[in-house]
Design goal:
Elements: H1 2-10, E1 24-25, H2 26-29, E2 45-46, H3 49-60, H4 64-71, E3 107-111, E4 115-119, H5 131-136, E5 143-146, E6 158-161, E7 164-165, E8 177-179, E9 181-183, E10 187-189, H6 195-203, H7 214-224, E11 233-234, H8 240-257, E12 276-279, E13 288-291, E14 296-299, E15 302-305, H9 309-313, E16 315-316, E17 319-320, H10 321-334, H11 356-374, H12 376-388, H13 394-399, E18 419-421, E19 427-429
Parallel strand pairs: 3-7
Antiparallel strand pairs: 1-11, 2-4, 3-4, 5-6, 5-8, 9-10, 12-15, 13-14, 14-15, 16-17, 18-19
Helix pairs in contact: 7-8, 8-12
């Protein structure tokens, strides 16, 4: 796969070449990436933090034989597995069967590009938590998440989040996770060495330094990247005006997708278009539908309006985002699996009615989807300008020494001088 991408990137974009051949692979522009998280058991994450705490207490207090059954052991994790703590978390490292310790506070994660859920951040419970991502997840970090290609999906190739993402699309397709920074504190950008300097030299003129800062490059990628079977590809403009327009669009998309994180304003629709609860949502809504005539979302017997049709129709990977979001929570409120069957083990623990927080989250999700859809027109205009050229292609990037990136840029950075607790309370210097 990597060899095919390199060959495509090196092509000169002749008459028989695809337009994508003149675009740089995201895998080269943001070279360090991680595979998605793999929890190994569904009960460690979900939309309700109270349910996660209840599951922990049930598991921690169980007798050994019952604990083994509830845990849902895999080859990677059992109640007797000894592993290091997750970076940044103060959970125990003794074997769970011997000393579970107190329940860790659930942390927010992003499931798919728009579903904020919760996770128990204990390494003993997670098959593949990707500690290298936790190590750089702080108040300065942003993550680009590839959606994975789908024939029925014409939307953006990736999304951006300030939360730790699990790396899956709503359809369950895995996508690479690319942090913007390689080290904590927003240092050492995860960009091809020399890329920022090249862009500043070609497009800078009298522009402010922020116009080519790592956040600006990520904003451009978010606005301009195109999906392809070999991974997202990014056209780089040779005109300063196009760069400025794309970065501005990408910054707005970043603000919407991160929901105002990093000091931005939370998304809000204009007055008169903001969704409100017109009829109270029931404790256990079973169905979701849309009344196009009244622009109303029907949640069981509840009603939310106005809801733009664009928010209702918004899909990622061929999956309608609102329906997927609702389905996960409706099942949890009713104590069922998403297929309607009664769950077994810890997945059945902590079922509760629909909490008020979910209604607030639903209103915000509607707002975000409507506003992101409103940027579809500007994205198409930007794409048309890029298709008309001129572009900074892979050949120019190679001539400038930006590509190919060194092998070290594809590996996580060492975090020297930082202690993390290893298995059974030992400490390691990373």
């Amino acid at each position: 796969m990597a060899a095919r991408r390199t060959a495509a990137a090196a092509s000169g974009g002749g008459t028989d070449s695809s337009p994508l051949d003149t675009f740089a692979p995201l895998d080269e522009l943001m070279p360090w990436s991680s595979r998605p998280l793999r929890t190994g058991r569904a009960w460690v994450s979900g939309p309700d933090p109270a349910a996660l705490r209840a599951r922990w207490e049930r598991l921690a207090s169980a007798e050994p034989a019952e604990q083994e059954r509830l845990f849902a052991s895999t080859r990677s994790r059992t109640p007797r597995t000894s592993v290091a703590a997750l970076p940044g978390q103060s959970t125990g490292t003794a074997r769970f069967a011997r000393s579970p310790g107190p329940c860790p506070d659930p942390v927010r994660i992003l499931h798919g590009p728009y579903d904020e859920q919760w996770l128990l951040p204990d390494h003993r419970l997670i098959d593949a938590a990707r500690p290298e991502l936790w190590r750089v997840a702080d108040g300065q970090q942003l993550f680009a998440v590839e959606h994975g290609t789908a024939p029925e999906d014409s939307g953006p190739a990736l999304s951006v989040t300030a939360l730790l993402p699990d790396g899956y699309s709503p359809a369950g397709r895995p996508g690479r996770i690319r942090p913007l920074f390689r080290r904590p504190g927003g240092t050492e950008p995860n960009l091809a060495p020399g890329l920022g300097e090249l862009l500043r030299g070609r497009l800078g003129g009298g522009a402010e330094p922020e116009a080519f800062a790592p956040e600006a490059v990520l904003a451009w990628v978010l606005a301009a990247a195109r999906p392809s079977p070999a991974g997202p590809r990014v056209p780089l403009p040779a005109e300063a005006e196009v760069w400025s327009a794309g970065v501005a669009l990408g910054r707005e998309l970043t603000r919407l997708q991160t929901r105002g994180a990093r000091g931005g304003e939370r998304p809000r629709l204009p007055g008169g278009r903001r969704p409100y609860v017109r009829a109270a949502l029931p404790a256990r809504p079973a169905e979701l539908s849309y009344d196009a005539g009244d622009e109303a979302l029907i949640v069981g017997g509840g009603r939310i309006a106005p809801v733009p049709a664009a928010a209702w129709e918004f899909t990622v990977g061929g999956v309608r985002v609102l329906e997927r979001w609702f389905g996960l929570r409706a099942a949890a409120a009713a104590g069922l699996r998403t297929d309607g069957e009664v769950p077994d083990g810890l997945d059945a623990v902590g079922a509760r009615d629909w909490p008020r927080a979910w209604t607030s989250e639903l209103l915000e999700l509607i707002t975000v989807l409507a506003l992101v859809d409103g940027a579809a027109g500007p994205r198409k205009e930007l794409a048309a300008r890029l298709d008309a050229g001129p572009l900074i292609g892979p050949a120019e990037l190679r001539a400038a020494g930006v590509l190919p990136v060194p092998a070290s840029a594809r590996r996580p950075a060492s975090v020297l001088g930082h202690q993390e607790e290893g298995p059974e309370g030992q400490f390691a210097l990373l």
